[in-house]
Amino acid sequence: MINITKVKCLGIFIILTFALFASCAANDTGDGIKHGSDTKQETNKNIKNDLKRDITEKIGAVDNDTIDNYAVDYEDINTQEAMLGLKEITREEAGLKDVKFLESNKFNLNKKIHKLLEEGEYSPKYYQEGIIRENGCYIITRRFSENVIENLNANSSINDVIKILGEPAYNIDTSYYYITKELYIGFDENGFIIIRPFKFKEYSKYEKDILTEVLPKLQKYGLRSGEHSNFDGFSNNFLHGGGVIAKSPLGIEIIDFFDDRKVTVYANFRGRLFEYKDPNASFQISYVNEDKNVSEMNSTLQTIKYYEKRFEEEGKLSLGGSYKAIYEWVNSSDYYFIIRKMDYSQPDFKIIAPAGDYKWISDTEISYTDIFTQETNVIDIAR
Fold first, then answer.
1. Segment holding 139, helix H or strand E
2. Looking at residue 202, what is its pLDDT?
3. Where would a tag sit more exposed on the chain, N or C end, judged by fewer CB atoms within 10 A?
4. How far is CA 7 from the centre of its chain?
5. Predicted confidence (pLDDT) at residue 334 exceeds the cutoff of 80
6. How far apart are CA 7 and CA 290, in angstroms?
7. Are the CB atoms for 131 and 192 separated by under 8 Å?
8. Highest mean pLDDT (candidates 7-21, 50-64, 135-149, 259-273)
9. Distance (Å, rounded) from C-alpha 171 to C-alpha 303?
């Protein structure tokens, strides 16, 4: 006699096994595949036989009636999306436009920069030559004397850039961005070029069906459930206050912060798109017609431009001319000097100090008034 408790415990296992076999059968594209009702009947028969074998291995001999009690019709599990509560939509329905790639093999990239992008071994010598590394990007300034791509450099006009490379994929204010299969590259009217290496082929294994894994797990477990919320190609970080944010360079961002639970998919994501069938799903999906990588690059570029302008307009030069300083007061617990060596032999560096008024008193020493105690202090930046 069959143990009813064991059978009930295996109910979910049986249904999911049915779904697995049905999904495999539905996705089979081999030669000689049958069509129509004969195929459906044969598939159901095969699924049932496989189920019987699997269940027998778990709890012993099982009769056909037990299998039939838990059987799921092939049409009910016709697709994985139906089982997971997802509805596939088109890029047009999502409001996402396709962006044309620049054919990078038609253009010559500077050999030194190409080596840097490939190896990622950044050193002070690159900074001295005019290449800044920030947030995974490389910003080429006018100090870099060589051409960057073709005969274009940081001094080139945007008209020349467009004449050689064609129309950009994105234009944000004074910056123009191009996308290749190997990298992103942007040109700014104010004398900067920004490059972010990104090999699309390295992420392609994650891309096509990643949402069929991410969306159902989010709905069931959320993003704060440990093992169930670690998705391939994503980086997870905690938010202040107890939330979690997960990002993928493919163009997906997930936030799980109590009542604020959302999935944002950007235009640079090129996989299959979905929405939840349940309008009351705990996570809301939104599609944004912008390239997340371009947005992040542009934010980095604007930060670089901001500090370059500040050094130019308000930087204080040391008495010997070896250093220049600006001061940054973010809030009452975040404050610092930013020091620049004028021969660019090392990247800019910070010195934490709660300074009010300050002045150089030598080539390496700064005298400042402590904003909290009103005491006068001296720091030697060369130590």
1. strand 137-140
2. 66
3. N
4. 44
5. yes
6. 51
7. no
8. 135-149
9. 17
Rg (CA), the chain: 29
Kindly report the backbone phi and psi dihedral angles of residue 161, in degrees, each rounded to the nearest multiple of 5, phi listed first. Answer: -60, -50
Asked if residue 268 lies in contact with residue 251, where contact means CB atoms within 8 angstroms, the answer is yes
Rounded distance between C-alpha atoms, residue 89 and residue 274, angstroms: 5
The span from the CA of 140 to the CA of 126, in Å, is 10
CB-CB neighbours of 275 under 10 Å: 19
Phi, psi values for residue 188, rounded to 5°? -115, 140
At 148, list the tokens.
Answer: 């960057």
User: What are the residues whose beta carbons fall under 8 Å from the beta carbon of 237, sequence distance 6 or more?
Assistant: 244, 245, 246, 247
User: What span, in angstroms and rounded, lies between the C-alpha atoms of 383 and 365?
Assistant: 10
The token duo for 308 is: 């370059």
Indicate the SS3 state at residue 30: coil
Cα 295 off chain centre by? 11
Q: For residues 364 and 322, is the Cβ–Cβ distance under 8 A?
A: yes
Question: Do the beta carbons of residue 234 and residue 295 sit within 8 Å?
Answer: no
Could you give the residue ranges of the DSSP H alpha helices within the chain? 4-9, 11-27, 37-59, 64-70, 80-84, 91-94, 111-119, 124-129, 158-165, 200-207, 210-221, 292-314
Cα dist. 315→9, 268, 304, 344, 375 in Å? Answer: 72, 39, 15, 15, 23
pLDDT the model gives residue 10 = 42
Side-chain-facing half-sphere of 240: CA atoms under 13 Å: 0
Q: Give the type of residue at 56.
A: T
Strand order in the sheet with 376-380: 355-360, 365-370, 376-380
